[in-house]
């Protein structure tokens, strides 16, 4: 099963954002254990690094960010962002949020079955179903191999 993870799912885990942490963590565990093939966009990587650098204080913040990202990249796949993806996202009038439109373009290109996000409203016009981390845990854990 191929899924696309929105940035907020990763940040829920890295920033230990409760009450979302547990379900988002379970999604990353499923990816780490090879039960799902999970992608994030290249732009998400940069957004995560930027947001973490604003939150983490201290001399070793870059090392914490590097370690966290390298661990994630050990089991998450990166969906490239092409010029065509950006153009399509900018032209998509069905989406109020251009970033969500860009995430959808990346998810389409990798043939994702689901977009996992806490912001389902941002993906309501997507041709790919969006589900929350909680819904995804229920779907994937109740699925027979």
Structure description:
The structure is a single chain. The chain has 145 residues and is of the alpha/beta class. The chain has one domain: 3-Layer(aba) Sandwich (Rossmann fold). Helices cover 53% and strands 12% of the residues. It contains seven helices and five strands. It has a five-stranded parallel sheet. It is globular, with a radius of gyration of 15 Å.
What is this structure's SSE topology?
Elements: E1 2-5, H1 7-14, H2 21-32, E2 37-41, H3 42-55, H4 61-73, E3 77-79, H5 83-91, H6 98-109, E4 114-116, E5 129-131, H7 133-141
Parallel strand pairs: 1-2, 1-4, 2-3, 4-5
Features:
single chain, 145 residues, alpha/beta, 5-stranded parallel beta sheet, 53% helix
Question: In summary, what is this structure?
Answer:
With 145 residues, the protein is α/β, with parallel strands linked by helices. It is built from seven helices and five strands. The model has no long low-confidence stretch (mean pLDDT 91).
Beta percentage is 5-15%
Q: What is the total domain count?
A: 1
How many strands?
5
Instruction: Provide the CATH architecture.
Output: 3-Layer(aba) Sandwich
Cα(first) to Cα(last) distance is: 11 Å
Strand order of the largest sheet: 3-2-1-4-5
Q: Give the CATH H-level superfamily.
A: 5'-nuclease
Poorly predicted ranges: none
User: How would a textbook summarize the main sheet?
Assistant: 5 strands, parallel
CATH topology: Rossmann fold
CATH class: Alpha Beta
Average residue pLDDT? 91
Rg value? 15 Å
């Amino acid at each position: 099963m191929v899924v696309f993870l929105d940035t907020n799912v990763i940040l829920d885990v890295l920033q230990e954002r409760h009450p979302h942490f547990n379900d988002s963590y379970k999604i990353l565990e499923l990816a780490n254990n090879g039960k799902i093939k999970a992608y994030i966009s290249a732009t998400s990587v940069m957004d995560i690094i930027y947001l973490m650098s604003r939150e983490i204080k201290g001399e070793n913040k870059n090392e914490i960010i590097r370690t966290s990202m390298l661990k994630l990249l050990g089991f998450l796949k990166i969906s490239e962002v092409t010029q065509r993806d950006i153009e399509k996202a900018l032209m998509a009038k069905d989406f109020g949020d251009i970033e969500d439109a860009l995430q959808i373009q990346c998810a389409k290109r990798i043939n994702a079955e689901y977009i996992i996000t806490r912001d389902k409203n941002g993906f309501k016009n997507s041709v790919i179903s969006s589900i929350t981390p909680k819904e995804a845990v229920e779907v994937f854990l109740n699925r027979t191999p």
